[in-house]
Design goal:
Blueprint (H helix, E strand, L loop, with lengths): L1 E5 L5 E4 L17 E10 L7 E8 L3 E7 L8 E4 L4 E7 L4 E8 L4 E7 L6 E7 L3 E8 L68 H17 L24 E4 L19 E3 L2 H17 L3 E5 L9 E2 L9 E2 L10 H11 L5 E4 L5 H4 L7 E3 L22 H11 L2 E5 L10 H9 L10 E6 L11 E4 L2 H11 L17 E4 L14 E6 L5 E4 L5 H4 L13 E3 L2 E3 L5 E7 L3 E6 L2 E6 L2 H6 L8 E3 L3 E4 L1
Parallel strand pairs: 14-17, 14-19, 17-18, 19-20, 20-21
Antiparallel strand pairs: 1-2, 1-11, 3-4, 3-10, 4-7, 5-6, 5-8, 8-9, 12-13, 15-16, 22-23, 23-31, 24-27, 24-30, 25-26, 27-28, 28-29
């Protein structure tokens, strides 16, 4: 905050911004100040839900237009009389657009970022008649506890007796701040938001979504795939904005990887979009996400490089692998994508990585296809290049490749893997019209890929930074970076049979899935241990003895025990080999969300449900 001073009477004020520094003819300080802010307090039922109140104060204000997030009923509100306030409840912050109508017919456009960090966040706007005092610092506004009134039943909008138009603003002296205490309404929330997050309606109507989507598809059908010399190649076939080329942040003359072939022009050089170009691309990406009928993620090692490592050359990330990858924590990218998944904006995730970081960030196990295997699924261990994909993973991947309306590619070089069809098929369909048409593919990477000419949008930069802007553009505020709270109990009733297959709806008995220490377990049928071809596991499910590190191992069925539970995974001993199982499987199993369980108890107990 900054101190301001009236040019006529010399009074000083605290403000966070100014509208106009032109001196006025009269000295009417209180009449020339506008306060915008919001109060916020956690709801009594806990969780992340806040009760908040947006307010605009100022004697010069005659009317306020408020543009809330599109998910609100009647999101365009017109406040024609004092007090200019709206109350609501919610768990997420977003930008609120305001049109302030002033005496004399002037209209000011402002944006207020809803804030939950302070009990009373605000900024002071100055209309003509003030100038800035240089070199004076203000103390930090610490906020106060705000008593919120009881919510009367059936009230939709804010109304209370105190007339804020009569509230004069205190002047700043050396001893005090801009006044903290403001009248609080007797009101109530206009829309209840449950603590359990829910899918959002991204526009006001299905007709508007369809119209926006068709307009985008029309553009894409008219723009063929691009050669690497085209002006749009580093921006995308659907991009409509400044064509300033991205800046090279790290230059290399070598290919991204030695184990993948690539054309001569493709190197490991890393780029970043110029700021105005990046903003334009993210704005268009947000609209793609809003109107998409099915959005699929396709991700590679790049999104985990900072915490796990990667094989590709990079200037931004260290090449090689970190120690103790089982204990890696999610990046901001994982949290952002996990959050979008919880909002119903990401419908499926084809994951090349094995690290479990999407699940640790809250993305549900049942919607993630770990196409190349997982460190946290004993039924689907990491697949060697010489191995075969899990029998359920490959059909699932092909279905996503055939049905995705929009594919978001992050952290992969698209170097020719079989699973790259998830990205390329959607791009191919963007050239078509009718039912088979699609919004295509968007790629977010530091490096170029061979497939960039097919992209609807091509964004260069760190995914952490780009997704942070995307969430704000979608109206969600900052990236939530809190890991899920996993169940404390390691045994739970689940609707699965003795072989770990999901039972039909209405089953009278459910299985007690016991993963407590020393519980006896076994790998379920249909596993891909033999297909993955990891040497340390090849005796499990084998038909003849195998050798591993000079030791001859007899064929084994896949029995074992739970050794212990750690922060977010169980350590298992399966036929003398160490394996891991993510704790998040408890959640998906209790909900009957996954088609099979990786392990079951050797002698499972069934109880009436």
């Amino acid at each position: 905050e900054i101190h301001y001073q009236c040019t006529k009477c010399g009074e000083r004020w605290v403000a966070s911004g100014a509208l106009d520094m032109t001196p006025g003819d009269d000295c009417m300080c209180a009449d020339r100040l506008i306060v915008i802010g919001n109060t916020a307090q956690l709801a009594e039922d806990g969780g992340h839900v806040h009760r908040w109140r947006l307010y605009v104060m100022g004697k010069v204000v005659t009317k306020v237009e408020v543009f809330l997030h599109p998910t609100f009923k009647d999101n365009h509100r017109i406040l024609a009389t004092q007090p200019f306030e709206i109350c609501a409840t919610g768990w997420g912050t977003f930008d609120i657009k305001l049109k302030l109508h002033l005496q004399g017919g002037r209209v000011l456009d402002e944006i207020w970022g809803l804030q939950f960090e302070k009990n009373n966040a605000k900024k002071l706007l100055l209309v003509p008649g003030m100038h800035q005092l240089a070199g004076i610092e203000d103390d930090e506004d610490e906020g106060i506890e705000w008593p919120l009134a009881e919510e009367p039943e059936g009230v939709d909008d804010l109304a209370y007796d105190q007339n804020l138009a009569d509230l004069s603003l205190s002047r700043v002296t050396s001893d005090d701040h801009f006044p903290e205490e403001l009248p609080v309404a007797d009101v109530t929330a206009e829309e209840e938001v449950p603590t359990e997050r829910r899918p959002l309606d991204r526009t006001t109507s299905e007709e508007e979504r369809d119209a926006s989507r068709e307009a985008i598809c029309t553009v894409l059908r008219s723009v063929p795939f691009l050669p690497h010399t085209d002006d749009l190649f580093m921006h995308g076939r659907g991009f409509q904005g400044p064509l300033t080329s991205p800046t090279a942040t790290w230059v290399s003359r070598q290919p991204p990887r030695d184990d993948h072939d690539c054309p001569p022009w493709l190197t490991a050089t890393e780029f970043r979009d110029e700021a105005t170009v990046s903003r334009a691309k993210v704005k268009q990406l947000a609209e793609l996400v809003r109107v998409s009928r099915k959005t699929v993620l396709y991700t590679g090692a790049g999104i985990s490089a900072a915490v796990v490592g990667q094989a590709a050359r990079s200037g931004e990330n260290t090449v090689g692998w970190k120690t103790s990858p089982l204990y890696a924590r999610p990046t901001a990218t994982h949290f952002a994508l996990g959050f979008l998944g919880m909002q119903g904006l990401i419908h499926s995730w084809v994951q090349q990585n094995h690290d479990g970081l999407p699940q640790k960030a809250g993305f549900p196990q049942e919607r993630i296809n770990e196409i190349h295997g997982s460190w946290f699924d004993p039924n689907n261990p990491v697949v060697k290049y010489s191995g075969n994909l899990h029998p359920q993973a490959h059909p699932w991947m092909r279905e996503d490749a055939a049905s995705a309306d929009l594919v978001l590619v992050l952290g992969t070089s698209l170097g020719g893997l079989n699973a790259d069809q998830v990205a390329t098929n959607a791009a191919e369909r963007s050239l078509r019209g009718g039912r088979d048409g699609a919004l295509g593919t968007v790629c977010i990477n530091l490096q170029q890929t061979e497939q960039d000419g097919k992209m609807t949008l091509r964004l260069f930069g760190k995914s952490d930074d780009i997704l942070a802007v995307l969430l704000r553009e979608l109206g969600f505020g900052s990236i939530p970076k809190k890991a899920p709270a996993w169940p404390k109990d390691s045994h739970v009733l689940v609707p699965y049979d003795a072989d770990g297959r999901r039972q039909p709806a209405g089953a009278k008995e459910w299985m007690l899935w016991d993963l407590r220490d020393r519980a006896k377990i076994r790998i379920t049928p249909g596993h891909n241990i033999q297909g993955a071809k990891q040497p340390q596991y090849m005796h499990i499910g084998a038909t003849k003895p195998v050798s591993f590190r000079g030791e001859r191992l007899k064929p084994a069925p896949g029995n074992g025990t739970v050794v212990r539970r750690e922060l977010d995974h169980f350590v298992l001993n399966i036929e003398g080999a160490s394996m891991s199982l993510g704790v998040w499987w408890l959640v998906s199993a209790a909900n009957g969300a996954v088609p099979y369980l990786p392990v079951v108890n050797q002698r499972p107990e069934f109880l009436k449900k």
